[in-house]
Amino acid sequence: MKDMTQVIQPKSDQWNADDLIGGPRTITISDVSIQGGTEQPVSIHIKGDVKVYRPCKSMSRVLVQAWGPDARAYIGRSMTLYRDPKVKWGGLEVGGIRISHLSDIDAEKVFMLTMTKQNRAPHKVKVLARAADDEPPVIDEKHQALAREAAKGGAEAFRAWFKANPQMRPSATVIMDELKQLAAKADELPAPPVEEDDEPPI
């Protein structure tokens, strides 16, 4: 006997179909990580939730066709997920998570999903209107320039600046990789020589 029950047990670190028995849920993406070579390589991190959503291949194809291949562009966008009890795994109807709505699409879309090797079926995704508080932040180039100057003082100086200027964080976050490089470069520079007049008293 080959026992199938062990492969249908829910994982505690991710959303499962049973989490949506109470009804669909709309989520906002805070990050996306991809780990190649695994059964579920994509982990979508959810704003305000410790669990991740790991889309199946069909839903990953929906995301790529709707939003493009660059997962960094998904951050800040939203989707509505629901439980489809007809989803099969290993020939069993175990239920699965499907996407019903997506933000940042201009019109309703229909995707042809592969159900089995011989069967494809249409899957409709509707437009998800953004809530007012979900609007993307306004990026201010002046704030970014100030962030760069702070980063040139090193990591500690930049962290202090970032903490003291919450209104500038959205603009700084967009160029965070650049800021980290500037701070790291500054920390690698040798300290300026101590002038004779600046020597501490003995």
How does the SSE layout of this entry go?
Blueprint: E1 25-34, E2 42-46, E3 52-53, H1 57-67, E4 78-84, E5 88-89, E6 92-93, E7 96-102, E8 109-116, E9 119-127, H2 141-151, H3 155-164, H4 169-174, H5 176-188
Parallel strand pairs: 7-9
Antiparallel strand pairs: 1-2, 1-4, 2-3, 4-7, 5-6, 8-9
Overall description:
It is a single chain. By secondary structure, this protein is of the alpha+beta class. It has two domains: 122 residues, no CATH class; 48 residues, no CATH class. Helices cover 25% and strands 26% of the residues. It is built from five helices and nine strands; from the N terminus they run βββαββββββαααα. A seven-stranded mixed beta sheet has the order 3-2-1-4-7-9-8, with helices on one face. Strands 5-6 form a two-stranded antiparallel sheet. Strand 1 and strand 2 form a beta hairpin. Helix 2 packs parallel to helix 5. The longest helix has 13 residues. The C terminus is likely disordered.
